[in-house]
Fold this protein.
Amino acid sequence: MSKVNIKVLADQLQLSVSTISKALRDSYEISDETKKKVMELATQLNYIPNPYASSLRRKKSKTIAVVLPEVADNFFSLAINGIQSIAESKGYHVLIYLSHEKYANEKNILEDCQSGRVDGVLISISSETNSAEHINKLQTRNIPVVFFDREQEAIETARVTTNDFDCGLMAAKHLLQKGCRRPAFLSISQSLPICLNRLEGFKAAVQQAGVPEEDRQIVYCTDNDGMYDQIKLLLQQPNRPDGLIASVEKIVTPVYLTCHELKINIPNEVKVIAFATLDTAPILNPPLTTITQPAFEIGKAAATLLFKGIEKSSFDLRKERMIIPSMLIERESTK
Amino acid sequence: MSKVNIKVLADQLQLSVSTISKALRDSYEISDETKKKVMELATQLNYIPNPYASSLRRKKSKTIAVVLPEVADNFFSLAINGIQSIAESKGYHVLIYLSHEKYANEKNILEDCQSGRVDGVLISISSETNSAEHINKLQTRNIPVVFFDREQEAIETARVTTNDFDCGLMAAKHLLQKGCRRPAFLSISQSLPICLNRLEGFKAAVQQAGVPEEDRQIVYCTDNDGMYDQIKLLLQQPNRPDGLIASVEKIVTPVYLTCHELKINIPNEVKVIAFATLDTAPILNPPLTTITQPAFEIGKAAATLLFKGIEKSSFDLRKERMIIPSMLIERESTK
DNA sequence: TTTATTTACGAAAACGGTTGCGAAACAATG
DNA sequence: CATTGTTTCGCAACCGTTTTCGTAAATAAA
């Protein structure tokens, strides 16, 4: 309604629009006296600048995109919080996009991000993604990209992850140390580096411990709906595993439910450890041993890097690699 | 870099920019032949329109704001998913803002929303908010607002909630029916309608059941950090409650942990029911009886209403009130 | 053939800020 | 006094797209 813009201010103060603009931006060209008058009238009339007019001219949107596989996950919720906290302090706005774990969606989203709508992109790729083109296109348009958690290895840019390999190793060692002889690794993707790295850690540990081939299993729960059945099958085998590593949080509930259903006691018959940031971990039945990822910090770090890339063109994101370690928190499920 | 805009297309095709613009928007004024040529060159040169130029001219941003207290909460995560799913299908973009339960933050956020950056606002107010001015300002600027879950009663606009009163009643009745004599209600705010309504339901139930005044307690866990201590105090009373209603999800973990710590058996010594969308509810120790809110549906419904308000100026949001019922899912914690 | 009517397009003014440059006013310097 | 410098402001172009209006040519109607 009240369309008070720079022109209105200019008319009322008998000044030119350029003077108003400069005054509002605190330009050295404008006298303190004039600035004060402008500011006063601006607040009095409740002047709010049109961000798109400004973006158009300055070719800066003060907006970033956050592209996630999904948000119904504690990890990503916390990461968003971290990102948001940095963005807010920098005066940036945050657009959220969900790929729903589909490459096609992710591609469309990044397509749009080339429009100038955003100054930078934070992305955790979908489990389907193994191409790099769509991300490359952003780079050729000089739009900084930073990966967090789920990276795409072929792309040269900054990435913030946790120490996935070490954690995979640590998780497996923990199970072995607690007496597991037939550990299994539950993954959700054959291509996601987070899964692969955690898996490699697992492999290294069982290799080193001399676990026979037939006693180590790797299960890919690639589709959400089939997860229960797959886990059930796994646990109904005659020589079922006696230790499980859930490589991501969403595997936890199906695992627990299946164990309860099949009356398999955790931790006596099977020990469970999971990569998760669940705050209900300590009150599960039994309390769940977790590799807790520093989701909030990862979000913050990724955002911080991105803003460096955005604000200093001299800053080279390509070699930046930040690894924020996770913590193993031992609870009853692996006792 | 490749700054291919309408002008570039125009030059290459020996046409005017207006013709290009119209062709791209499939205007009847342009011949099919020309349209085809324009489209082809556009895709060939990978032309991507500048959204801000368009927004500036058309005074439509194709963007909405979602203002939340926080996102580290299953309810809001799911709600975002619902909102996002509708926005995506409508070709809208979603800006996320967090108030961190502070009125001052919320006010700043809504201030910015007046700039034309967004075409509408979905909001779940902070627990601190009891003023309405900041929301009113949006209305006077003709920016549609829709509340979801946490509404501000003084404002006349659409709202999507769950049947809070009924659920409060249902929860209390459930506890009473299961044999509780001294039920307590754990709230997080003295002003949030969701808390008040749930509380009113609780009050009605205990009133009706004739529970003596001294045997019903209402505890306000207003600050996050003090929550543990407050709950501990509550449960260390000589005449401690034998039934607890957690009015929001984040109270659950502290309650369970405290019970475990004090060796108070759930459900034998105290029964617990919670308003929560936790997917770990069935695997908690013991499995938690929940009032499960249809978070995803609430998000979808709120977004749908908002878009109606945005797209049809004739559509009057003021009288819209949608109530999507929650479900009581009984589990061990109230057995 | 003349007069309407369509069809297909272009010119130019928006939208609301930003910014390079020139200019006036005044002060300082030689 | 002439010259140079400083301060403060306005003019006008510009960002990329949309949209109103005008018009020439082609077609249809008279």
About this structure: Chain A has twelve helices and twelve strands. Chain A touches chain B through 53 residues (CB under 8 Å).
